[in-house]
Amino acid sequence: MTSPENLAYSPAGAAQIGVIGMAVMGSNLARNFASKGHTVAIYNRSPEKTRAVIAEHGSEGAFIASETIEEFVASLERPRKAIIMVQAGPATDAVIAQLCDAMEEGDIIIDGGNALFTDTIRREREVAARGLNFVGAGISGGEEGALHGPSIMPGGPAQTWETLGPLLESISAKVDGVPCVTHIGPDGTGHFVKMVHNGIEYADMQVISEAYHLMRYAAGYEPGQIADVFAEWNRGDLDSYLIEITAEVLRQKDRRTGKPFIDIILDAAGQKGTGRWTVKEALDLGVPVTGIGEAVFARALSSALAQRQAAQDGGLPAGTLSTLEQLGIEPGDFVEDVRRALYASKLVAYAQGFDEINAGSMEHDWGINPGDLARIWRGGCIIRAKFLNRITEAYENEPTLASLLLDPYFKRELEGLVDSWRRVVVVATQLGLPVPVFASSLSYYDSLRAKRLPAALIQGQRDFFGAHTYKRIDMEGTFHTAWSGDREELDY
């Protein structure tokens, strides 16, 4: 071990768990383990960061700090368990390679970053060939969650859960005494469900922002008023982490100017890729995650600043626009409609996310239990919400539920929401205010409930120009019409 003169460490026995990467997420996770009575090995490529963690937080528990991977691995008890918290991609592969060289058969490497699940499948295969175990673990909750209790989604070999389970349960969030962690399934499942979790998060954040935008620019509410509205909503069906922090953001004043903080932020939203991955994978699986997709595209459009400026400078015609007053709508009544539309659109986002998870599970034969996910997402994670209790119950009652929206409880809820939802989309259009997730979620809902869709005409067109065939509603089989000939229907 490195001497105390170079790097302070606790000599209190071998470490039960190790964390590599001492940026905020990694250091907070290590501190969480230490606060639960575990001896924690820590390592960072730059020793200065490791020293800083020991200097600032070394009194919080038992840490063993190392300056080399070899020292780090030597400090771990068998089977060794090391969590990687470094940037996804080549940096993760580099650390995995170092650990494989230093570890022994049966040891466990855990990737706790936001890795693409196909990379996790590849990595598990490569690590298994070296006689080691690899676990891709989605970890949600941000910096605070990492420190005080995240929601954790580990995949990988089932036997690793026997060793990792008690450790991860000890640091996870708890709801009604139940740890917000469970073994998700084999190979890439942990990172797959974390990817979709983040996709739901994109839609949730976007539709909340659309609700704010309507209250601000349609109802004429000031940010402080809107903060109070969100705080009130957070005491009801919309009780959730994202609603809670929305009120906090809207109350914030800019220290430099005294203006509302929301008014000094550039309206260009960033993204790190998990939302895009969710949509790309949904396309490959043939699952319509329209609300999530619109949320991803809304971020992309917000960041197209030159294009947006050109459209404003070019004076794109708006047509005839109205105001709430001209439409005879009271602002308070409109805001209540927005609340109901927000609830409905959030339900669609979660329903679409679970649809993608179910489709991915079937495609890869993973056996993911959606009820387990709803349960562990109730606490710690970014999309934690009161109605996840209801989602948990829905899948407990019917594990093969065709759509979350068809659960009896949520069907009853939607009966009281749908009229407001329609009014909000119509009024927003009349006012010229963009509501891509509100609108696309409503269209998705109407598509599910429609007896007939325009797809019949699309099939006719496809058969006309490309002989792609079609099916009939009144008999079995596949057919093609000889469009360029006598238009006889041919049985394929």
Give a quick precis of the structure.
This protein is of the alpha/beta class and 492 residues long. 53% of the residues lie in helices and 9% in strands.
Question: Which parts are unreliable, with pLDDT below 50 for 5 consecutive residues or more?
Answer: 1-13
Q: Give the helix proportion (percent range).
A: 40-55%
Number of helical elements: 21
* Structural class assignment: alpha/beta
What order do the strands of the largest sheet run in, or round the barrel if closed?
3-2-1-4-5-6-7
Number of strands: 11
Instruction: Report strand %.
Output: 5-15%
Terminal Cα separation, in Å?
74 Å
Computed CA radius of gyration, to the nearest angstrom = 26 Å
- The general outline is globular
Mean pLDDT: 94
Largest sheet: 7 strands, mixed
Characterize the structure shown.
The chain is an alpha/beta fold. It is 53% helix and 9% strand. It has a 7-stranded mixed β-sheet, with helices on both faces. A two-stranded antiparallel ribbon has the order 8-9. The longest helix is centred in the last third of the chain and has 34 residues, at 331-364. Residues 1-13 have low confidence and may be disordered.
Topology:
Elements: E1 17-20, H1 24-35, E2 40-43, H2 47-57, E3 63-66, H3 69-74, E4 81-84, H4 90-102, E5 108-111, H5 117-128, E6 133-140, H6 142-148, E7 151-154, H7 158-171, E8 174-175, E9 178-179, H8 189-217, H9 223-233, H10 241-251, H11 261-264, H12 274-285, H13 290-302, H14 305-313, H15 331-364, H16 370-376, H17 388-397, H18 408-415, H19 418-431, H20 436-449, H21 455-466, E10 479-481, E11 489-491
Parallel strand pairs: 1-2, 1-4, 2-3, 4-5, 5-6
Antiparallel strand pairs: 6-7, 8-9, 10-11
Helix pairs in contact: 1-6, 8-12, 8-13, 8-15, 9-10, 12-13, 12-15, 13-20, 15-19, 15-20, 16-17
